[in-house]
């Protein structure tokens, strides 16, 4: 937007850049393999309906709250949440989000490293070479710690370079090309996949409507988990990306509706691309995450022109993973550069360095990576989501945020129906999902680690902010008490 | 082995495409068109209205209902700015009528 209203803070260069940053951050590896599979396993069209209802009831209001808070405060997660809670221990809600965010990146970076490795090998035509065996290829990668750590290092170096260039010259320049390239790549594969003999079986598996599934608790539980993990709610991404919006930018239409439905649309496109392939070549659709790294390379061997399709797929897959990783890391960079005396460049090096060091165990051992993933994905993300929603719903007050920020320059008007969703429905939904996970994993190490995290992370966060804010100069803004009246 | 695609599957695919790509496409086109209108307004008159009639009315209601709120001054600033821009500019982003603008009062 050609406005002369400039601030010292960076801004998105275009509306399209903001939209692609949100989509690029939210679309990751889970959209590509998990959405099609859980859809097919839980009643096809019936699951899609349940997923849509939860998107509009929980995820879109939650994302709107995050973007509106970031836009209003014009700060990263700790600064935005401190503006809502006032300085002191309660601002530790922002530290919870930051800790969870950085913890997630420590094991996501090695996964991005795998996608980099596969992309490079697709260009070397490894997957269509004589004697290639997909399972052995993946096992050899996992059995080579030096290579795994090298990939993790390369990924963090790429991320640091992009972030070093800044919001507009680095992050935006990447996402405006990478996200459309990902969509184009998946679309091309989808067109090829649905025209293969036997592809119909994959479409029937994924999309056949079985209405009785709407009466099953598991359908709703799976839809809720998918919605939570795929929309990026609670990662602090929407606060951070929203904080770089310009003066006259909208929050609810682009940051809420488009982001949630748009990222799910990539999952739908992946369903058209992946599962017809999987069924056409007789691969087990229940392979889960292994589907991408073990099953699909086997498919490309058998496909006519498989080398080219492998390049298209693994390039898109790498871009999906990289854009997420870049924007997730930006959350920490923005916050550290605001909360410390470090410059943005120093913050990039510091945050990327910390993630690199803490990510070494996950890069070294897949078992450690999976344990961290299970612990933080199951309990960390809902905890961080609750932290943000408590700040908005119970400290800032949803009505206050709605009239001041959400509906200012908005592309759609958000009515008062939004307030109870943000204050009660979304936080209670997160508590419910954590209770379900705790019940499912009762007595197991993952559950115990999760409980330790649920108690330890908030305690540390509140203590840190109480100490930090007590030493800081008095805030210019009066402390905010209570929420809506 | 499935030879043909049953009607239920076609319905599921149709719902998925319309509900996701349809809604996402609508949202993207709408927000990018709005962006173009905002750019045009700002190039012409440097300022633009920041609230819809309903949004501004709710902001005023909130200001009046919360006289001691620490954010009240900020809210008043936002309200008055929008009213002044509406009075000083000819073209508006939101659907304001002349009668509605004439009835507006700053706080």
Short description:
The complex is a heterodimer of chains A (485) and B (107). Chain A is an all-alpha fold.
Q: Can you give a write-up of this model?
A:
By secondary structure, chain A is mostly helical. Chain A is 76% helix and 0% strand. Chain A starts with 14 loop residues before the first helix and ends in a 14-residue tail after the last helix. Helices cover 70% and strands 0% of the residues of chain B. In chain B, helix 2 (53-65) runs antiparallel to helix 3 (72-88). Chain B starts with 6 loop residues before the first helix and ends with a helix. The interface between A and B is large, with 54 and 48 residues.
What share of residues of chain B is helical?
A: over 70%
Runs of chain B in which pLDDT lies below 50 for 5 or more consecutive residues are: none
Mean pLDDT of chain B: 93
Spatial gap, N to C terminus of chain A: 36 Å
| Global outline of chain A | globular
Estimated structural class of chain A: mainly alpha
Fraction of helical residues of chain A: over 70%
Q: What's the helix count of chain B?
A: 4
Percentage of β-strand residues of chain B: under 5%
Largest sheet of chain A: none
Count the beta strands of chain A: 0
Largest pleated sheet of chain B = none
Q: What general form of chain B does the structure show?
A: elongated
Give the SSE order of chain B as H and E letters.
HHHH
Radius of gyration of chain B (CA) equals: 22 Å
* Distinct helical segment count of chain A: 19
């Amino acid at each position: 937007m050609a406005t002369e209203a400039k601030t010292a803070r960076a801004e998105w260069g275009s509306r399209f850049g903001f939209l692609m940053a949100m989509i690029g951050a939210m679309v990751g590896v889970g959209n590509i393999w998990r959405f099609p599979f859980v859809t097919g396993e839980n009643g096809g069209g019936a699951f899609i309906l349940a997923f849509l209802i939860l998107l509009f009831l929980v995820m879109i209001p939650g994302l709107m709250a995050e973007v509106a808070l970031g836009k209003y405060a014009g700060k990263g997660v700790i600064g935005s949440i401190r503006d809502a809670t006032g300085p002191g221990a309660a601002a530790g809600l922002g530290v919870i989000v930051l800790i969870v965010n950085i913890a997630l990146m420590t094991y996501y970076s090695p996964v991005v490293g795998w996608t980099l490795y596969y992309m490079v090998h697709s260009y070397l035509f490894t997957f269509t070479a004589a004697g290639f065996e997909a399972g052995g290829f993946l096992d050899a990668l996992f059995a080579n710690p030096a290579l795994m750590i090298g990939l993790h290092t390369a990924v963090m170096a790429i991320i640091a370079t992009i972030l070093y260039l800044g919001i507009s010259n680095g992050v935006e320049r990447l996402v405006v090309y990478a996200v459309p390239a990902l969509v184009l790549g998946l679309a091309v594969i989808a067109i090829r996949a649905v025209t293969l003999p036997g592809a119909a079986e994959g479409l029937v598996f994924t999309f056949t409507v079985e209405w009785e599934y709407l009466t099953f608790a598991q359908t709703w539980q799976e839809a809720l988990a998918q919605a939570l993990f795929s929309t990026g709610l609670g990662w602090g991404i929407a606060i951070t990306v929203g904080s770089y919006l310009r003066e006259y930018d909208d929050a609810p239409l682009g940051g809420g509706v488009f982001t949630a439905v748009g990222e799910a649309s990539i999952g739908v496109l992946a369903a058209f691309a992946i599962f017809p392939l999987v069924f056409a070549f007789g691969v087990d659709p229940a392979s889960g995450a292994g589907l991408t790294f073990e099953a699909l390379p086997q498919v490309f061997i058998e496909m006519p022109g498989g080398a080219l399709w492998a390049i298209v797929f693994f390039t898109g897959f790498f871009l999906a993973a990289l854009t997420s990783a870049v924007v997730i890391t930006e959350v920490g960079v923005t916050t550290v550069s605001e909360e410390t005396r470090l410059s943005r460049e120093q913050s990039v090096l510091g945050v990327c360095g910390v993630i690199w060091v803490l990510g070494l165990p996950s890069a070294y051992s897949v078992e450690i990576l999976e344990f961290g993933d299970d612990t933080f994905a199951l309990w960390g993300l809902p905890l961080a989501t609750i932290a943000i929603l408590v700040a908005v719903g119970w400290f800032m007050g949803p009505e206050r945020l709605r009239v001041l920020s959400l509906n200012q320059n908005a592309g759609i008007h958000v009515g008062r129906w939004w307030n109870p969703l943000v204050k009660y429905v979304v936080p209670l939904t997160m508590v419910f999902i954590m209770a379900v996970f705790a019940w499912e994993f009762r007595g197991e190490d993952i559950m115990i680690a999760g409980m330790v995290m649920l108690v330890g992370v908030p305690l540390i966060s509140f203590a840190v902010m109480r100490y930090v804010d007590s030493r800081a100069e008095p805030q210019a803004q009066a402390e905010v008490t209570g929420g809506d009246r | 082995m499935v030879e043909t695609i049953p009607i239920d599957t076609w319905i599921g695919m149709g719902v998925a495409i319309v509900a996701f790509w349809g809604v996402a496409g609508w949202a993207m086109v709408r927000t990018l068109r709005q962006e173009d209108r905002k750019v045009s307004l700002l190039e012409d008159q440097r300022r633009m209205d920041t609230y819809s009639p309903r949004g501004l009315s709710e902001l005023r209601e909130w200001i009046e209902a919360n006289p001691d709120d620490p954010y009240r001054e900020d809210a008043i600033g936002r309200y008055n700015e929008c009213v002044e821009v509406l009075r000083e500019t000819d073209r508006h982003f939101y659907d304001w009528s002349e009668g509605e603008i004439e009835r507006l009062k700053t706080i």
